[in-house]
Design a protein that fits this description.
The structure is a homodimer of 421-residue chains.
Chain A: H1 3-23, H2 26-42, H3 44-60, H4 65-71, H5 75-90, E1 98-103, E2 109-116, E3 119-123, H6 128-140, E4 144-148, H7 154-170, E5 178-180, H8 187-192, E6 201-204, H9 208-217, E7 230-234, H10 240-252, E8 261-267, H11 271-283, E9 288-291, H12 293-299, E10 305-307, E11 321-327, H13 330-340, E12 345-349, H14 353-362, E13 367-372, E14 389-391, E15 399-401, E16 407-418
Parallel strand pairs in A: 3-4, 3-6, 4-5, 7-8, 7-12, 8-11, 9-10, 9-11, 12-13
Antiparallel strand pairs in A: 1-2, 2-16, 14-15
Helix pairs in contact in A: 2-5, 2-7, 3-7, 5-6, 6-7, 10-11
Chain lengths: 421, 421
């Protein structure tokens, strides 16, 4: 099979289908989602069998246990997929909304209409649930989509693709509205990210090496997530209970998530009081503290203490490890953050209103918080209803990306025969 | 001079300055704009002298008259630049606005704050007025900027850069908030578009060949404008007067602009009535009509008639030439548009409400109009106050791009000590 030609055909079909997807009314798109949920429920047994085929092959190929865990499609995972689709049905339709319609002195009325992006390419790991989540969000937002999941999940993804197509056709939508790349050849990714004539945006979900490759090669724009080096700054005017609660929760609620705190900054004025208290909490979880000299002096005797090096300021541990630094004041904290942060999420703990408002304004990250745990940086927590990913980019979508991130605004003009003078 | 290193230093200084630019309050940014306007007014004579140096060199190098015309900085052009800056001062500040602040069930309050993009690179032709317009918009929107104008304007741009820096410093802002690339080496452009660590977005203003080069080479995202192949569709239910007014104005108001109509589509039902009337109007301007066979049959005898080839459907004439095609109905018109349009601006003329609303929804262009001339697709006409360019892209900014297009939204969270459960 000629991969480039195969992908080109996929692209052409997606572009064609995108028009019908964009035109479809709310009820039709919701009907497709409901039919897909019903089909998955009906064929749950066959899906598990296809997944078992993938699991057996992956185990034989020596896939790491953590990867096998992501690949597995349990009954519970299937139920969650179905529930996810039904939740997407319940979300308001973002498409067609006209905002800001205003008369101009010439007599024309100008506004903006929310419309689908067109064709969305999604590249993700071997997690079959992403196939259904991503297809659901793209259908709801009136987009056509090309899904390229990890090769280990190919049998399950093919089975899911059939059910998605069944749902689309059942609702009178084109089956090509959602296409799964049926080859595991890595050249398919190279083709997908370099056909801007057919693909309007790529959403990569995966590790840093995938993103780095795409950034170097892609000519299609991306909504991408790189890493989460999140900071909490305990200000001189921090409330002690809030400081302890948030600094503990932001690190220990879950270690492996991108909105987990990786560096704690503490104002010099409160460091001697707050750090020993915090250390008692972290000790219950054996959190390793990598401290700068000033923090280390305060923390002397902590059983899991290490000296921080510059590398620690730019490391996403995703583990029970925390970099700790004492700073003179908020300005030094913001300097540190703006230098080392991956621009994901940062929080200040303070009772000082002016400090809080300055931090919100001046810290250049996709989420900036006052007196809340960084763990809240999440599409569901923010009320987006669903999340296709988190964007570290500044253009288009920033932070958690929901349905709106899969749309754009075009200008609409209502005239009455007006011409330019 | 090592161009790469020179550009790298420019980038580092811009990134550093961008923090102070973003932090500056409304009054400070407006003060800088006013000081720049005052300085240009004061030094108008010196600016004209610098421009004359450029004009003499360009004339000696045999620059085309149209290019010389763009390069010239007349007294009137200087007055327009000054007036433009004062208008930007009067625009509302887009920065810092918080929208959609809502309480979530967890107790946190989530909203979005409008913030500068950071560092904006602008690449443009040899038009010194763009140096001031672009600097003004970037200062107002709290961004740092690197300006790379056409090499023929280098003396004038250097003189303008000094005045801009004087204004920034006078307001207490960093002089590096606006930097003009002081070399005419084309390698500077290659460096500028491949340093995403220092530049957040590139706005190219220039011809298709520049854009094509940037699309192939840039690793920094772009807000770009390609071409304007705009359509007017005269529906079967069009009002005759509106049809004639709009079809004439969209073509003949100005030939060289990107929102000028290049293809006219006419519903079969009204073609025999409307085309001869239109031809009488176009004849007064000697507009060449490139007609498909059906339109040609109706237009037989028109003095400037030619047969349309497929190439005409994708040509931006920027001249008194118009492609004309008879279509069966609106569906055929929309098929033609969605196939051949550059997705800039399209208009329908109709009294049929359902047709009008379908056209608005289903045509995938940055501006879609009912009963208005395509010539209205413009930042000033839309009420944006100022325009950095028009975007053919779907991501981030689409259509005319004003101050808001130079900003992004970050999430802000107001908490009271909340942690994730």
């Amino acid at each position: 099979m000629d991969i480039k030609q195969y992908m080109e055909e996929l692209g052409q079909r997606a572009r064609k289908a995108s028009r019908a997807m964009a035109r479809a009314d709310t009820a039709t798109r919701n009907r497709a989602l409901t039919l897909i949920a019903d089909a998955i429920e009906r064929d749950a047994y066959a899906l598990r069998a296809a997944n078992q085929q993938d699991m057996d092959a992956a185990a034989a190929n020596g896939l790491a246990p953590a990867m096998l865990d992501r690949l597995a499609l349990s009954d519970k995972a299937i139920a969650t997929m179905i529930e996810g689709l039904r939740q997407i049905v319940a979300l308001p339709d973002p498409i067609g909304e006209i905002s800001g319609l205003k008369f101009r002195p010439t007599g024309i009325q100008v506004g903006q209409m929310r419309v689908p992006l067109g064709v969305i390419g999604i590249i993700y790991e071997s997690r079959p649930n992403v196939t259904v989540d991503a297809a659901g969000l793209c259908i709801k937002s009136g987009n056509a989509t090309i899904l390229r999941g990890g090769s280990e999940a190919i049998h399950c993804n093919r089975a899911l693709a059939r059910l998605v197509k069944e749902g689309l056709e059942g609702a009178g939508l084109p089956a090509d509205g959602v296409q799964v790349v049926e080859t595991t050849d890595r050249a398919a990714v190279g083709a997908l990210i370099t056909m801007p004539q057919y693909v309007d945006v790529i959403v990569p979900r995966g590790g840093k090496s995938l993103i780095a490759r795409l950034m170097a090669e892609a000519t299609v724009p991306m909504i991408k997530h790189l890493d989460g080096i999140c900071h909490v700054y305990l200000d001189a005017k921090a409330d002690m209970k809030k400081a302890l609660d948030i600094a503990f929760n932001a690190k220990c609620h879950r270690y492996g998530t991108c909105n987990t705190m990786e560096t704690l900054l503490v104002a010099r004025a409160i460091a001697p009081a707050v750090l020993p208290e915090l250390a008692r909490l972290y000790a219950t979880r054996q959190v390793e503290l990598r401290a700068d000299p000033e923090a280390a002096a305060i923390l002397r005797g902590y059983p899991h203490l290490a000296a921080a090096t510059e590398e620690d300021w730019s490391t996403e541990y995703l583990a029970p490890i925390l970099a700790v630094k004492v700073v003179a004041d908020m300005d030094e904290a913001m300097d540190h953050i703006n230098t080392w942060s991956s621009k994901h999420t940062e929080a200040i703990v303070t009772e000082d209103h002016t400090a809080a408002m300055r931090f919100l304004r001046e810290v250049d990250s996709s989420s900036v918080m006052v007196n809340a745990s960084t763990r809240f940086a999440d599409g569901f927590e923010y009320g987006l209803g669903a999340e296709i990913g988190i964007s570290n980019d500044k253009l288009h979508a920033r932070g958690p990306v929901g349905l709106e991130g899969l749309t754009s605004l075009k200008y609409v003009v209502f005239g009455h025969g007006e011409i330019r003078q």
